[in-house]
């Protein structure tokens, strides 16, 4: 704390201001500085001339070092200033202004013990200014804070008490003493110092908050309720919207605490339903987010997922609430089990809604996407199911999810093929085959090419199917009946061109016809026969890569 020069008008030492710290200057030179001598002894007539000359020379040299030190202090060169003051003190050891200047330098470089030693030396002098004890008090206070940070509470409290004895007007010091006594579990002393601050600042609600929380740590429950309630009423009058009011209100509601503690005891012995009953009674008194969260987790533990959602979801939806990962996981799992219940009862739409909420709170659970994909698939929403199976594969690299995705893409392509949307069907089939190669997808793609009048690509697609499965009767029938228009000669030419082994006794009458989803389209046979087709086609090369 800095003190103004005007606070010490009667000091025998004059004060200069160098920056923010008052510096007492040296008095005017005198022949003899000892005030205990009488006038005859202090008269220059009784002192030899050479003694006066030596004393004057010593004083001038000491004052020069002092001025050099003050100049260095103003520049922030405190180490060099201490060196100059040491020289001045060596010449005039009884000049307390030099000692005071050195103490200020020690304090500026955080040499607390050095500052204390020099301040005490100044205080022991009868001519010390009135504000010097305050500077010493500040040094003790700073030293106490250092020890407090180290956890040395006894030493810190000793320094604080010395500072308090020198100057009792430092409110920060009093609060520091309160904290030290609390750390040492000396509640009576802590209350005594805190009450001094409350008497001085009786309109400050934060002090009452501190006192209420100190009473909270007492063992006497009745005392806690009475004192906390008393301080809470004062806080409400001074600051009705104080942020600590809700917290203190919960302390006053001791029955809530009792119910909560009883609930923990029941959980410890495995009586979860009784614990839920205790928490429910507590929530009826005060609807606290923590109590709701604990009850929601207990509901999840016993499988009451609907009530778990009712407790946990409002907590999660509050933007300012810091929700733990456990709460989010349990909430998502509650929605997932709720969705499973809807599936068992055959309500797929509600199941999709519930599992979508589960994914919202936990987007990394594979089983959530799998369940929603199955629900979409049951409603023939294959596009949505494909997206969910793709997420399953991204989260868990399992080939089964790719097979499911490819199978659904094939179903989508079949639907588009039936709707005669051949272009989109072809795009979907390409995506399907890129995911997992399905023979039926290759066959349908060949038929789609044929519908798009791309006979060459259709032939290559059928050849690709026959290379994978030479006995595929449907591919044989499509090649013979549709592409070759029933001509055994054209069929033989195509098989020879692509080096395919001829079908056993292939002819229109020998091949067992299979029902087909496509409608027969009559094309010119000559356009379907390509005798000069190279043996390795584009589709074949892609198949070989796969």
TrEMBL record:
Location of region: Disordered: 1-41
Renumbered ranges of TPR repeats: 62-95
SMART domains: TPR
Pfam families: TPR_16 (PF13432)
Assigned keywords, A-Z: TPR repeat
Family matches, as SUPFAM superfamilies: TPR-like
PROSITE patterns: TPR
UniProt cross-references to PANTHER family, sorted A to Z: TETRATRICOPEPTIDE REPEAT PROTEIN 16
Name of this protein: TPR-like protein
